[in-house]
Amino acid sequence: MSGLTHLERLEAEAIQILRDGVAEAEHPVLLFSGGKDSTVLAHLALEAFYPSRPPMPLLHVDSTWEFREVVWFRKQFAAENQFELVLHHNEEGRALALNPIDHGSIYTTVMRTDALKQALDAGGYDVMFGGARRDEEASRAKERIVSVRNVGHGWDPRKQRPELWSQYNWRRSSGQTLRVYPLSNWTEFDLWAYILLKNIRLCPLYFAAERPVFAREGTLIVIDDEDRARTLGLSISRFEKVRFRSLGCWPVTAAVPSEASELSSIVKETFSSRVSERNGRVSDEGSLENQKRTGYF
User: Fold this and answer.
1) Do both 107 and 210 map to the same domain?
2) Residues 184 and 226 reside in one and the same domain
3) pLDDT digits (tens, 9 = 90+) for 201-212
4) Predicted TM-score of the model (pTM)
5) Whose CA is closest to 225, among 217, 214, 241, 210?
């Protein structure tokens, strides 16, 4: 890859991983949340297999507490780029009326982890591509690019396969599946630089706008649904110009005050920030590694 820029090397690496993974898979799938990472990964899949249609569907595990703009964006993105869009909810969890504030880690297990495993089993997917990066969080830094999962989708970081000189082990035994992370070596800065370079359209929540917020313990929670917010004891405190650096379930994802309403200003703001992008994930207070061990992406 001599002569390539830093971003070109990252792009080429990710595209090769996508092509190799699809070649090794019987039923590949790309996990799509509507966030910036999975959006970039989906764009790389379009590049990897152009001019053919993407050879894998987008799978969104919907917690039922997604931002309305995420729901709108996922539908528009899939339609515009000719992706099949597969949605899955954990209906048992929905019947229990679980929410991310009152039920915490139980909610994450049921509506995220268990729901993902249900969706993967229902689709018979054997190679799952995700947009996680090693710089996001400590347990994700332990992941290999090609990460093997056991029959129950469990992950043991002590049994990860070595990956030397970008040589990936795609072998899997009966019942095993592979989680694949083509963006592992990207940083948040790399991601935003690439988005700016390619002018990739993102979910509007990444751009600053006047939004109704509830101020709670130093965080700003955007009230996405007033009726559901009232059931959680949340109400609009004021309107403030805010945006998001990372997207999750709206009652536990904090917004940041910002004037950045276009890509160039977002990149400038991100580069000068000294706070982690996942700092606004109130739901990260528990152990992400424990969730990953049982099947969380």
Assistant:
1) no
2) no
3) 999 999 999 999
4) 0.91
5) 214
Q: Domain boundary residue among 170, 192, 214?
A: 192
| Owning domain of residue 153 | 6-192
**Angle 36-41-67 from CA coordinates, rounded to 5°:** 35
The answer to whether 233 and 226 have CB atoms below 8 angstroms apart is no
Shared domain check, 117 and 187: yes
Instruction: Enter the tokens of residue 238.
Output: 């004021």
What are residue 239's DSSP bridge partners?
212
Task: State the average pLDDT for the chain.
Answer: 90
Q: Nearest CA to 240 among 262, 228, 256, 251?
A: 256
CB of 280 closer than 8 Å to CB of 254: yes
Strands 146-149 and 177-180: antiparallel
For residue 51, cis peptide bond before it (omega within 30 degrees of 0): yes
Residue 239: which H helix or E strand, with range? strand 238-243
For 242, the enclosing helix (H) or strand (E) is strand 238-243
Q: What is the pLDDT of residues 230-277, one digit of tens each?
A: 999 999 999 999 999 999 999 999 999 999 999 999 988 888 876 666
Q: Phi and psi at residue 208, in whole multiples of 5°? A: -65, 135
What is the domain-level CATH number for residue 106?
3.40.50.620
3-state secondary structure 248-284: CCHHHEEEEECCCCCHHHHHHHHHHCCCCHHHHEHHH
Strand ordering across the sheet containing 127-129: 85-88, 58-61, 28-31, 127-129, 177-180, 146-149
- CA separation (Å) from 241 to 164, 211, 238, 248, 260? 46, 6, 10, 19, 9
pLDDT in tens, 128-177: 999 999 887 777 677 889 999 988 888 888 888 888 888 899 998 888 99
